[in-house]
Amino acid sequence: MSVKHSFKQHFEWLDGYSTSVLSDDLIASVIVSILLVPQCLAYALLAGLPPQLGIYVSIFPLIAYALLGSSRQLSVGPTAVISLMTAACIATLPEETRLVSAALLAFMTGIMLMIAGLLRGGFLMNFVSRPVVSAYITGAALLIIISQIKHIFGISASGTTALGLVTSFSSNLPNAKPIAMIVGISACVILFLVNRYMAFALVKTGVKAKLAKLISKLTPIAVIFVYIGISSSFGLYKNYDLSIVGMVPGGLPPFAVPTLSFGAMEGLLMSAAVIAIVAFVDSTSTAQEFAARNRTKLDTNRELLGLGASNFVAGMTGGYPINGSMSRTAVNVSAGGRTPMVNIFTALFMALTALYLTPLLKALPLAVLAALIIVACLSLLDFKNIWRTWVYSRADGMTAMATFLSVLMFGVQWGVLIGVILAMALHIRQTLRPHIAEVGRFPGTEHYRDASRFIVETNEQVKTLRIDESLYYANARYLEERVSELISNSPEMRDLVLMCTAVSRIDASALSSLHEINKRLKMLNIDLHFSDMQSRVKERLFRSNLLDELSGEIFLSQHDAMEALRPEPDWSQFSDHIDIH
Questions:
Q1: What pTM was computed for the model?
Q2: In 433-502, where does DSSP find H-type helix?
Q3: How many Cα neighbours within 13 Å face the side chain of 480?
Q4: Angle subtended at Cα 81 by Cα 418 and Cα 136, rounded to the nearest 5 degrees
Q5: Which residue numbers delimit the STAS domain (predicted)?
Q6: Which of residues 575 and 122 earns the better pLDDT score?
């Protein structure tokens, strides 16, 4: 593909970019910016970093993503889960090194993502289990909520696990500040009611559903400024010792390469890798959902490049890791945002905020920011999905539950690692012992079903095993075991048919196993046959000598095989199993 063609394809959204589209993008960017200002301050607080860093990562990184990312509507920037992961990474470091370490973490995360994108590693997302991601986000959201309760009570508490946070919080509870509790709890209640019921109430009054939803998303901003006004007017910081954001330094972030000491990079390497995985999976899941709604194509390799570039720039501007935000993307879509220009316009508005509007945020109570985080994280709690996964599959449910508990018990980094490892182990276990069923003909039809689940016609001299998985080195031995088991239980067998409907690949190790099975059956005067074999698998077998040595034949369908091999026209023996369907 030529550079010119690639460039044209990348910026195809510019074709037909009219003033009406520009107007839609501009309005959407204003609305997203209004939502982003308090969020970026809150998430910087969650990451254990100065509030201005939340603004810094909402400027140039957004432009980088708009230029390189694939999604037209994904809103990138600081998010709750990645902020919590950043906090866990730098919490144990000396305080004077945390800012540099956070920037280095973003820098390394960006490089990893960009390398993965250049190597076309977008397919790696297929290896991350959705139940694991859902359980991880639920666990992280609950951990975030627990971590923010300290601000609601106006006390300090530290820890990276649920037990550590609760223990620290309990020991400091006698020092709780009544004013912080009044402000924090009231803010939680108001923001929760607005988030849960305001859109419904507006629709009842005749407001259109889309507009009502948008208003409900933006109302918390008005609530926050009300609290800023109350805090400033009554001097809650000076008179009642209420913790506030304080003076937020204005100005644009400086560009600088983070300190690249080998020791620091080695210490953050694993953390950066875990953050890169979570950021990519979370962002791409959001981008794919909205791309499907708008019938646009998403290139996961370009997503890696775009997300990597935004994190790289975040590190170069003294920030910390970022990713795509589900809530802000939803607001962007609801507000009519149509192209990546929304991210660019949002970056410009955030730059204006950094230059001129930061003094307005000085009196913002930390308890209100904590309430904003808590209410936002409530929407991330998805216990129903964990339960649905458990009901559908005990194995997947146990993996999801283990991931959720691991996040709470060991922290966000270990939680995601344990979840991914368990999901991979489950997948390997399932492919090591694939489902191989003895099948028979469903009476009166040409269809063949599992004899252990249906009442089917079988023949003691002609047996069929249906293989429900591709054959490769890890499960080939299991096929040999199943054939040996069938031989020992079927003394009258003269023909064995391997039904290969679901077999899309046979590797060299599995081919050797088929040779061994054929050889063993020959010694017992049993012919080996294949049926329902896919064309590409058959073509591969023609390149081997298996078909030259094969004692039987390859049949187009299972019914053809049974019609050709049955010793007599009458099927009289039936399996004794009960139909459970």
A1: 0.82
A2: 476-489
A3: 18
A4: 30
A5: 452-565
A6: 122
